[in-house]
Design brief:
The protein is α+β, with helices and mostly antiparallel strands and 326 residues long. It has 10 helices and 14 strands. The protein has a 5-stranded mixed beta sheet with strand order 1-9-14-13-12, with helices on both faces. Bound molecules: oxa(dethia)-CoA (UT7).
């Protein structure tokens, strides 16, 4: 499914924000617990450290801090928010949705709020939903949040997965603006459930006989990522009559440095035009794109008017891309 905005409204990125847990865990520290090494993790993934949530740093807690940062960045008060859409695979409870908990934490008592479950593609899926609500006139200000505590679903004795992920949250405040102005140009979503067993969490609420741990066939996911992300990026550019050379910034999902670098090269982008956080955050799933965006906007790299390409692939299998004029 894709949405290419024709009508009178466009979803503008008014503010961005991120929040990371306090505790940083280096590769060296992990290597004291599982049979791995800093050298292996850096060579295969580019990851050097990750942040791991303390018990009080829940998906709600991290998501609310990121949302507050996005509101501050936009200079918009929480009372203006019409909808909270939160992407997560690690909600604090089966229900109510973590989005509703965040809404309450921000003191918002109007509008609507719900979670999106699309694993690492969750933020792109949530952007698509927010974009549609704004363009249809159903909401003027939408908080789009990715908030994850993967440390709670990792098998810490499985070195093939536990070294790859980290916790964190990122958020955009989107606001309705004129269709001819800046904002989300289009969002493109895909899913193929036949590939669901390549990356999944073994269990759900009430299934006590299952482990509840993340399981991944890493090499196969890697192969799908390279092919599917290339195709969806081409789809996004073609839908807008744009060329690779028009892209100012690649803000990709941060799963593996090799996948990110490959996409940067494919687009012909100079390395400094690719926003990389995987070295410090590891893979924060649905939080990785808004966290990367918050960093690059915060330090002044991404400027108003720049063309930003976002892409992600994850469990489902789900994947997607979004193009935005910041
Ligand atoms: O965010 C959702 C999307 N996820 C992704 O895009 C992830 C995609 N996949 C990947 O990023 C990579 O496949 C991984 C980083 C997960 C793995 O890298 P790889 O180069 O595909 O390694 P591999 O799985 O082929 O493993 C190579 C070797 C194996 O040993 P043998 O069989 O060759 O003796 C593994 O047992 O590395 C071993 N290994 C490790 N060694 C040290 C696996 N994990 C570790 C580890 N430390 N942590």
């Amino acid at each position: 499914m894709s949405l290419v905005s024709p009508p009178a409204l466009r979803a503008r990125i008014l503010g961005v924000g991120g929040h990371l847990p306090e505790r940083c865990v280096t590769n060296e520290e992990l290597a004291t617990r599982v049979e791995t090494s800093d050298a292996w993790i850096v060579e295969r993934t580019g990851i050097r450290q990750r942040y791991i949530a303390a018990p009080h740093e829940t998906a709600t807690f991290l998501g609310a801090r990121a949302a507050e940062a996005a509101l501050r960045d936009a200079g918009v008060g929480a009372e203006a928010v019409d909808a909270v859409i939160l992407a997560t695979s690690t909600p604090d409870e089966a229900f109510p949705a973590t989005a509703v908990r965040v809404q309450a934490a921000l003191g918002i008592r109007r509008g609507f709020a719900f979670d999106v479950a699309a694993a690492c593609s969750g933020f792109v899926y949530a952007l698509a939903a927010a974009d549609a609500f704004i363009r249809q006139g159903m909401a003027r200000h939408v908080l789009v949040i990715g908030s994850e505590v993967y440390s709670r679903i990792l098998d810490w004795s499985d070195r093939t997965t536990c070294v790859l992920f980290g916790d964190g949250a990122g958020a955009f405040l989107l606001g309705a603006g004129p269709a001819e102005g800046p904002g989300l140009l289009s969002v493109h979503l895909h899913a193929d459930g036949a590939l669901g067993d390549l990356l999944y969490v073994d269990g759900a609420v009430g299934q006590r006989e299952r482990s509840g741990f993340l399981r991944m066939k890493g090499q196969e996911v890697f192969r799908h990522a390279v092919v599917k992300l290339a195709a969806v990026v081409d789809e996004a550019l073609a839908a807008n009559g744009l060329d690779k050379a028009d892209v100012d910034w690649l803000v990709p999902h941060q799963a593996n440095r090799r996948i990110i670098d490959g996409m940067g090269k494919r687009l012909g982008l100079a390395p400094e035009r690719v926003v990389v956080t995987v070295d410090r955050h590891a893979n924060t799933s649905a939080a990785s794109i808004p966290l990367a965006m918050a960093e690059a906007v915060g330090d002044g790299r991404i400027q108003r008017g720049d063309l930003v390409l976002m892409e992600a692939l994850g469990g489902g299998m789900t994947w997607g891309a979004a193009l935005a004029r910041y």
